[in-house]
Amino acid sequence: MQGKGLITTIAIILGLICINELLPTFYVNRIEKEASAISGGNEIRYKKELEKLSKDTLNLGFTKLDYRSAKEKEMKLGLDLKGGINLLLEINQRDLINDLTNYSSNPILIEALNRADIAQKTSTKTYIENFFIQFDAVNKEKKTDIKLSNTEIFGNQKLSDQIKFNTPDSEVKRIISKKIEASASSAFEVIRTRIDKLGVTQPNVQKVPGTGRILVEMPGIKDIDRVKKLLQTSARLQFWEVQSIEEIAPYFQRLSSVVMSKGDSIGINRNMNLMSTLNLQQVMSGVAKVKLSDTATVNKLLNSVQAIKTRPANLRFTKFMWGAKPESEAPDYLTLYAIRGTVNNKAPLDGAVKEARINYDQFGRIEIGMQMDSEGTKIWKSLTEKNMERPIAVTLDENVYTAPRVNAVIANGSSVITGNFSQQEANDLVDVLNSGKLPATAKIVQADVVGPSLGAESIHAGVISFIIAFALIMVYIIFYYGMAGVYAVIAMVINLFYVFGIMDSIDATLTLPGIAGIVLSMAMAVDTNVIIYERTKEELFAGKNILEAYKDGFKHALSAIIDGHATTLLTALVLYVFGTGPIKGFAVTLIIGILMTFFTSVVLSRVMIFSRLTKGKTISVWTKFSKNLFRNIWIDFIGKRKWSYLFSVVLMVICLGSIFVKGFKFGVDFKGGRSYVLRFDKPVVASDVQKDLLSLFKTQDGKEESVDVKTFGNSNQIRITTDYKIEDVSTSVDVEVERKLYTGLKKYLPENETFEVFRNSDAEHAGIVSSTKVGPTVADDIKIHGSLAVLAALSGIFIYILVRFRRWQFSLGAVAALFHDAVVILGVFSLFYTIAPFNMEINQDFIAAVLTVLGYSINDTVIVFDRIREYLRERKSISLAGLFDDSISSTLGRTFNTSFTTILVILAIFIFGGDSMKGFMFALLIGIGFGTYSSIFIASAIAYDCIKGRRKDAPPVHELHT
Q1: Contact at 8 Å (CB) between 286 and 337?
Q2: Which terminal residue of the chain has fewer beta carbons within 10 Å of its beta carbon, N or C?
Q3: Whole-angstrom Cα distance, residue 392 to residue 241?
Q4: What is the fold, at CATH topology level, of the domain defined by 451-656+780-959?
Q5: Which comes out higher in pLDDT, residue 768 or 547?
Q6: Distant-in-sequence contacts of 269-272, Cβ < 8 A, 24+ apart
């Protein structure tokens, strides 16, 4: 055959590339297994053995491998397979604007910023776009006509080289937008530098364009709290004047009265003795020393509307800050400081650190020595002159690290931070300061944490489900197609090898949904072979010899295969564009799988088959069981279409009724919230756990926030979801929620289990094994992008079918069938989410499942439409109804085989693939079942009803076609 040499060469080159890419992964696995076997499960010994083995090298002639370099090149595993943390950091763009306006207090600016904060919660626009919109709106409402180039806005000294008094607003917007983007790029570089200093293997750090967000993924990391702190620390070191206890004490006395009279409305016990709680007599530079357990209550009081209204004039701009950590002599107490604030919230000295290092005082205690830059040195000298014999607070991210009393003027720009540091804390702080400061504070708006034990279980479940699914495919296709099935299996094995090799070569991350994507691409490979072999069987039954039958089989199948691959590829591309995290991983593997399926199952398989046939050898395309299966089946589908319409209408009414009346259970990535998977050493009852937790999750006004508890897989695992304080995405609230869980679940935990063990549990301990946090802004973005993904997929498919088949009737029938499938899946998830024994949330995974079903369903529809198009050209003497029935009946063999093998694969993953995949796979099961139904009974029927009347019909002659 033509091109045989070229195709063989390409296949060999691809194979060599894949071998070269996958070798490091195999080598690393071999070394780690050997170290694990020697160490016998001892972590310390395992590391020592790994260190010994890593000194060895493997020389293969064309390449040399050693453990360290191979570890860097091995295939990346996602969090769900390896454990670790995935964070979405958002740079505070309000801080950036404040900095660019030199912390202006202009009321128009402040109101525009406040409105932009509110608008951002439900908007897909960037913060700076919302700010400009709100600034123009406030200007118009107030009739002030203040220009953005005003000296109190962006026309200040800081931007004088770019913005003049007469610079038009459009130009200022362009300049500021560019500055914001540059700041986000700067933050990206700072964060990447910090991660490099952590020594994490294969971290993934990406900018999310136009959002001020940075995606950070660190598989295998165990010290989650350290990572969160390191990445959120702005390294914006500030130096503030401190107010004395004499200035603050009268205000605290007034607050005591507020507590007694209005405590209940604030959410504080009216009988609390505030002055005793504050321990005023025990402080030096601070104004109070508070028990750790009481700090949340004091925060609630100080930030309440009543407390702010009670402030005297001298405390109008005061900022209350806590010490960074307890002092060694009082480990259960935290110091509260009163910082002398300013009208524009700007510190007297901000940043200015040129170099940081670890020092030791005369007692051997760790301290951080700093040298300021030239500008900082001048300001520091002036500040120390002004505050002789008074304390100055050194703060980092609103936490006071030290507040020493100034005994002498410091003219050389040197300063020291003390704070009872451990060696690691000191190293991290020095790394943060030397990496450079973030241009603004960063907050974690989305987080996924997976414990290593859960990751190991996911790998096991994923591998088992993959092996079972692949084995089922191989057995069935050989059983059904005989020797031709063997060639299909060979093509699929090569396909699988190529997929893993290409993924490794492009540094794609393999996730659990990614494994599902690979398995589904294997199902598509089966579909491709089924189409070819079914057409070959038809040619053989028509009396052609084996060589001619295969030639015509490949030729006539090509159009349907191209259409099916193109529409599925289109869906996968939509998933890639609109998806995030694991969904992107699913899309990447599906895209690679689809492309490799076409190459191996159509191009390479053709070379292998014809190489054998041209030598005079034969290749059977059936077995005794399958030879005449589906051959003489003819069904009057069009005549029965009214019954299918009736069934579908009733089904859709039920589904839509449930959707509008009962609604859905939305996951945290669609509504915002925190979700935790917890494991216990004994069975627990989800409803009992929920009762125990409800009273703990209350807002300031005393209302109970939602807490949902469900069994997750086994009876000793539960999933807890709550929207408690979700507007606050700070790390301190994360710890607060986890502490509430620990308190509420203590009776279910082993005796004497500590809070630290509970929140960082492993295979041997009860507690949190994974967690997810999604801020409300991110949740809105995910919802909107999910909706856009579905609309984009439907629109793309409509246009593709229109262009490919040149009839709008086909496009309408296809999209109607897809709409039908989507409604049914949504309806099933609405009807059964309260009673299903597994998670049936509407989340990103669900959207991915819907889009996958749409891709599969349109693939099925295209096969039928392709046969209808062929018969419309060739069988003009047959009535339109008979032609449609002939087309559908002749493709039943392909429809059954593809649907059956795909459902087998999905069932294998559903049963053996782990609890986190059950909802995703169930959606695929429902969707593929009804997708097959809609391709035959909805898409074809609607296309028929739209075409009839436009075609001069022939007499109703029914012929039997195989």
Answers
A1: yes
A2: N
A3: 5
A4: Multidrug efflux transporter AcrB transmembrane fold (1.20.1640)
A5: 547
A6: 272/297
